[in-house]
Design brief:
By secondary structure, the protein is mostly beta strands. It has 2 helices and 15 strands. The longest helix is centred in the N-terminal third of the chain and has 13 residues.
């Protein structure tokens, strides 16, 4: 996770910190998934299909892809019904008692998401709909004002490659040598916000 914060040190030694982003951006390395020449060819084709860092794609963050980290079937509140409001963004909360980061989930995984309120799991298409490209839930059958909406399931993280160049010769050399001697190439990816 990466944040963007500028720190200014004052003449008396105190600091002024300016936090530029509301929440952090995740960073990934695709290299651990490349173990064979066949993997490298698949990555090369995928990289070319995205025009390097030109187009984003959904990626699985193996450390964070469920609404409740400890139990994929557990539900957690993401919104509270307010009379007259029918759309709600899926979110996930991070942090502790000292600070909370509320992160918009924009790429819920089709076939895994369940929404419930009023004590029961509701039916997609009857009680609610989900835009799987934005993570926006539209309530089709309004509950009582103040009703908590809960979600369970999985999601993707929208990413792009960090570089426009794939170090395939270095990756291939590393695969042939089967050694970690020297610099292992990085195939960096970074989370894309607003997609």
């Amino acid at each position: 996770m990466a944040y963007s914060t500028t720190v200014y040190t004052q003449p008396d030694g105190s600091e002024v910190r300016i936090i530029h982003w509301a929440d952090g951006r995740k960073r990934f390395n695709a290299m651990p998934g490349v173990r064979t020449r066949s993997d490298l060819i698949k990555l090369r084709n995928f990289f070319s299909g995205r025009a390097g860092k030109g187009h984003s794609f959904p990626a699985r963050d193996l450390s964070d892809f469920e609404f409740v980290d400890t139990d994929p079937d557990a539900f957690v509140q993401f919104a509270t019904y307010a009379t007259g409001t029918s759309t709600y963004q899926l979110v996930k909360q991070y942090g502790d008692a000292a600070g909370v980061d509320v992160r918009a989930i924009t790429k819920p995984e089709l076939g895994t998401v369940q929404i419930r309120w009023g004590g029961g799991v509701k039916t997609e298409g009857t009680h609610y709909s989900i835009n799987y490209l934005t993570g926006v839930v539209t309530i089709l059958v309004a509950p009582a004002n103040g009703t908590a909406f809960e979600v369970a399931g999985q999601f993707w993280t929208p990413c792009r490659f960090i570089e426009d160049e794939l170090p395939s010769d270095q990756v291939f050399y590393h695969l042939i040598e089967k050694t970690s001697f020297g610099q292992i190439p990085t195939i960096g990816m970074i989370e894309v916000k607003g997609e």
